[in-house]
């Protein structure tokens, strides 16, 4: 097992190099170059020459990549074009907000999805199952921004309720913070619950078909024991894998929901940077988010080996 | 000629099976309506999408403007109909891009295995390591927001899924006896791939394409919502919904119409994809 974990961590290195290379190369596709985006229409040869030296654009491509990546490894993501501030500290402080939102959304989605998914599997082919499956289908079909807009519309027209403006940190005032975060978390969590529901249902059904369930039934165990002691314990294992994928979806989803609800998280930082053509920030944030995603998947994979003893890795 | 008739018969047969299932029927009809709307958009839309009725801005739905008008006095219904066209266009072309590349990469990786396989699949792993909307956002922001770049971005983002699906099917088909016999009589790899492997991986490929269409339409709407997809004055459901937020209380119809159309379209494609999977690949049915 330890050797599997070590190998799994080592396998990350080429993926991470690939990701950073990919981001770096896509950045080279910017029409013209980074500086023309920064200067806009006022092309000024002197200013341009200054920027070329400042950003090291006179260096060959491989050297620029290696310089960038060595700095990133030291925790130096460079400075913003617009504000000249260091990127890394701001990214970290914003990540805390996005992290809180992601966790809240994930919890909401589990609370909704896992019980419904189990019920739907146990009551297979009844009207309960049909309703749950339809809700799940809605979950995977409704875009989070459409849900968010309709939710805000509904709340404002029916209850004259408006999402609070301005952001307050959790440790400054937890109550106000939660009031701000709860709506975007509900939006993300509800949407995400669709895929979790589907996964839970099919995985519980899969277990119920296994031979060992027949054996347990045959030895006369009550249906309650069959379901709660045996079926669920095994059926819920695959859902752990889903958590990894879910985090990816949530990290992507936060870009839109943070924008709609004006939450100053990482997603909003990326979007603002894209709109301002602040390329170092875009590059840094995308790398950081992809890194988080990869790390979550690593943790999930490792967790999986602990939870499911049947899995042996050679 | 004979082949074409065979294929048509096959397709009709699949549609018949789809229509037997009530849920499949809903999906099929939903997709059919959207396709009709986008093909006949110029005939159905009562007004020009850029025509501004300056005297009737933000008019609520009535007999003249059935979905009301927006802040410029443009007819929302006409823009919604054209929005269907834009959505479907982006969906089909971007899925075309990812399906083509996915097919080529998947076949090559699955058929030849070895080093080529490792290189292709590691590259796909890298693309997979990004949350998909984020990668699309990134590519569009670098290339510049436009209709064409939106399609390219979505096409790239979806390629890994197709590659994985095709590769997995190729590997399972490859071990079949008929492939071994084809090899033993000395058929060239290209012939084996085109005549014997491709027809047998079409089922999962088609299912994947239908589901990818709904994903592509969703991503387009998300990008346009963020202002990074379809650019004005071209209508897109995503950007219409985003614009509507400014007039939320005065003109709720501006939000409701595009939201309902986005949801119904994606829902129809998802239902169709799921039913198609049940028809084409009964093993997977739970």
Automatic annotation (TrEMBL), chain A:
<keyword id="KW-1133">Transmembrane helix</keyword>
<keyword id="KW-0812">Transmembrane</keyword>
<feature type="transmembrane region" description="Helical">
    <location>
        <begin position="281"/>
        <end position="307"/>
    </location>
</feature>
<feature type="transmembrane region" description="Helical">
    <location>
        <begin position="176"/>
        <end position="196"/>
    </location>
</feature>
<comment type="similarity">
    <text>Belongs to the binding-protein-dependent transport system permease family.</text>
</comment>
<dbReference type="InterPro" id="IPR000515">
    <property type="entry name" value="MetI-like"/>
</dbReference>
<keyword id="KW-0472">Membrane</keyword>
<dbReference type="Pfam" id="PF19300">
    <property type="entry name" value="BPD_transp_1_N"/>
</dbReference>
<feature type="domain" description="ABC transmembrane type-1">
    <location>
        <begin position="95"/>
        <end position="304"/>
    </location>
</feature>
<dbReference type="InterPro" id="IPR035906">
    <property type="entry name" value="MetI-like_sf"/>
</dbReference>
<dbReference type="Pfam" id="PF00528">
    <property type="entry name" value="BPD_transp_1"/>
</dbReference>
<feature type="transmembrane region" description="Helical">
    <location>
        <begin position="97"/>
        <end position="122"/>
    </location>
</feature>
<keyword id="KW-1003">Cell membrane</keyword>
<feature type="transmembrane region" description="Helical">
    <location>
        <begin position="236"/>
        <end position="261"/>
    </location>
</feature>
<keyword id="KW-0813">Transport</keyword>
<dbReference type="InterPro" id="IPR045621">
    <property type="entry name" value="BPD_transp_1_N"/>
</dbReference>
<feature type="transmembrane region" description="Helical">
    <location>
        <begin position="134"/>
        <end position="156"/>
    </location>
</feature>
<protein>
    <submittedName>
        <fullName>Peptide/nickel transport system permease protein</fullName>
    </submittedName>
</protein>
<feature type="transmembrane region" description="Helical">
    <location>
        <begin position="9"/>
        <end position="30"/>
    </location>
</feature>
Automatic annotation (TrEMBL), chain B:
<feature type="domain" description="ABC transmembrane type-1">
    <location>
        <begin position="84"/>
        <end position="273"/>
    </location>
</feature>
<feature type="transmembrane region" description="Helical">
    <location>
        <begin position="124"/>
        <end position="143"/>
    </location>
</feature>
<feature type="transmembrane region" description="Helical">
    <location>
        <begin position="251"/>
        <end position="272"/>
    </location>
</feature>
<keyword id="KW-0813">Transport</keyword>
<dbReference type="InterPro" id="IPR035906">
    <property type="entry name" value="MetI-like_sf"/>
</dbReference>
<keyword id="KW-1133">Transmembrane helix</keyword>
<dbReference type="InterPro" id="IPR000515">
    <property type="entry name" value="MetI-like"/>
</dbReference>
<feature type="transmembrane region" description="Helical">
    <location>
        <begin position="88"/>
        <end position="112"/>
    </location>
</feature>
<comment type="similarity">
    <text>Belongs to the binding-protein-dependent transport system permease family.</text>
</comment>
<dbReference type="InterPro" id="IPR025966">
    <property type="entry name" value="OppC_N"/>
</dbReference>
<keyword id="KW-0472">Membrane</keyword>
<protein>
    <submittedName>
        <fullName>Peptide/nickel transport system permease protein</fullName>
    </submittedName>
</protein>
<dbReference type="InterPro" id="IPR050366">
    <property type="entry name" value="BP-dependent_transpt_permease"/>
</dbReference>
<feature type="transmembrane region" description="Helical">
    <location>
        <begin position="26"/>
        <end position="45"/>
    </location>
</feature>
<keyword id="KW-1003">Cell membrane</keyword>
<dbReference type="Pfam" id="PF12911">
    <property type="entry name" value="OppC_N"/>
</dbReference>
<dbReference type="Pfam" id="PF00528">
    <property type="entry name" value="BPD_transp_1"/>
</dbReference>
<keyword id="KW-0812">Transmembrane</keyword>
């Amino acid at each position: 097992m330890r050797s599997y974990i070590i190998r799994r961590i080592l396998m990350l290195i080429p993926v991470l190099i690939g990701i950073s290379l990919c981001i770096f190369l896509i950045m080279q596709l910017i029409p013209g170059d980074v500086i023309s985006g920064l200067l806009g229409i006022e092309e000024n040869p002197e200013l341009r020459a200054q920027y070329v030296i400042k950003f090291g654009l006179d260096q060959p491509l491989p050297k620029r990549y290696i310089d960038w990546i060595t700095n990133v490894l030291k925790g130096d993501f460079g400075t913003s074009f617009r504000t000249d501030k260091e990127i890394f500290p701001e990214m970290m402080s914003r990540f805390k907000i996005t992290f809180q939102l992601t966790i809240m959304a994930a919890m909401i989605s589990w609370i909704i999805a896992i019980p419904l998914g189990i019920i739907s599997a146990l009551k297979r082919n009844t009207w309960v199952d049909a309703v749950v499956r339809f809700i799940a289908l809605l979950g995977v079909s409704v875009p989070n921004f459409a849900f968010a807009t309709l939710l805000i519309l509904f709340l404002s027209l029916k209850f004259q309720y408006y999402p609070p403006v301005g952001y307050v940190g959790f440790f400054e005032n937890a109550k106000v913070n939660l009031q701000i975060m709860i709506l975007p978390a509900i939006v993300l969590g509800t949407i995400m619950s669709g895929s979790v529901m589907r996964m839970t249902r099919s995985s519980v059904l899969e277990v119920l078909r296994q031979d060992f369930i027949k054996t347990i039934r045959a030895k006369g165990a009550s249906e309650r024991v069959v379901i709660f002691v045996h079926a669920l314990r095994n059926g819920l294992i695959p859902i752990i894998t889903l958590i990894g994928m879910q985090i990816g979806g949530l990290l992507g989803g936060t870009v839109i929901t943070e924008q709609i609800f004006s939450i100053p998280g990482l997603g909003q930082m990326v979007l603002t940077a894209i709109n301002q053509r602040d390329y170092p920030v875009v590059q840094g944030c995308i790398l950081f988010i992809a890194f988080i995603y990869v790390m979550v998947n690593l943790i999930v994979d490792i967790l999986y080996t602990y939870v499911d003893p049947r899995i042996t890795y050679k | 000629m004979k082949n074409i008739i065979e294929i048509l018969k096959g397709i009709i047969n699949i549609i018949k099976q789809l229509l037997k299932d009530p849920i499949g029927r809903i999906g099929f009809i939903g997709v059919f309506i959207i396709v009709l709307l986008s093909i006949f958009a110029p005939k159905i839309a009562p007004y020009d999408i850029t025509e501004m009725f300056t005297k009737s801005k933000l008019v609520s739905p009535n007999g003249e403007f059935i979905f009301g008008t927006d802040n410029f006095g443009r007819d929302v219904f006409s823009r919604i109909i054209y929005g269907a066209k834009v959505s479907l266009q982006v969906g089909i072309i971007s899925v075309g891009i990812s399906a083509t590349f996915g097919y080529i990469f998947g076949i090559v990786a699955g058929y030849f295995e070895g080093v080529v396989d490792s290189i292709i699949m590691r590259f796909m792993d890298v693309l997979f390591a990004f949350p998909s909307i984020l990668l699309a956002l990134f590519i569009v922001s670098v290339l510049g927001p436009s209709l064409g770049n939106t399609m390219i971005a979505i096409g790239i983002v979806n390629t890994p899924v197709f590659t994985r699906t095709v590769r997995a099917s190729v590997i399972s088909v490859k071990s079949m006896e008929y492939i071994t016999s084809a090899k033993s009589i000395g058929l060239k790899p290209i012939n084996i791939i085109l005549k014997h492997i491709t027809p047998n991986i079409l089922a999962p490929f088609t299912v994947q394409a239908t589901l990818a269409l709904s994903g592509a339409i969703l991503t387009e709407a998300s990008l346009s919502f963020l202002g990074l997809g379809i650019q004005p004055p071209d209508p897109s459901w995503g950007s219409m919904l985003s614009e509507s937020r400014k007039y939320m209380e005065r003109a709720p119809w501006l939000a409701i119409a595009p939201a309902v159309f986005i949801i119904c379209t994606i829902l129809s494609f998802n239902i169709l994809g799921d039913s198609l999977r049940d028809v084409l690949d009964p093993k997977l049915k739970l």
